[in-house]
């Protein structure tokens, strides 16, 4: 069981284990906003609802803007595992401007690519091949990218994650 943690300003921060969420609630560092139906958890002094979403009582400053690191898995996920050139199933990634020509490992220069297109393109640009990109590569946005663990989210979390998007 997992719990969504919201900052004091209702900004999604993280997904934590049920035990960690319960410890935060028991130490009065968080309050339960959404509960899971079922039996409460009994402590020595009181009973506690099973938390689905908790709100921190104090605001936690998040350092800087959250940047999503560029990874192969992230690029494939961003593009829906579809080739940026032919829309077939993608298993690799491709540099739009090849690395041999100074292309960077950035969200704006990487697209998901099928093996056939990747081999055919080689170290050329799409313009030289006469190809067009289906999508414009850009950094991913939304709470499912900045808040770890929301890929397999609980339906109860949706209203809170929508606020961050």
From TrEMBL:
Q: Where is the HNH nuclease domain?
A: 70-119
| GO terms of molecular function | endonuclease activity
Q: In its keyword annotation, does this UniProt entry include DNA-binding? A: no
Q: Which UniProt keywords apply?
A: Endonuclease, Hydrolase, Nuclease
Question: Which InterPro entries does this one have?
Answer: HNH_5, HNH_nuc, NA-targeting_endonuclease
The reply on keyword Nuclease is: yes
One protein family per Pfam? HNH_5
| Record-linked CDD domains | HNHc
Query: What is the official name of this protein in its record?
Result: HNH endonuclease
- State the organism of origin: Microbacterium saccharophilum
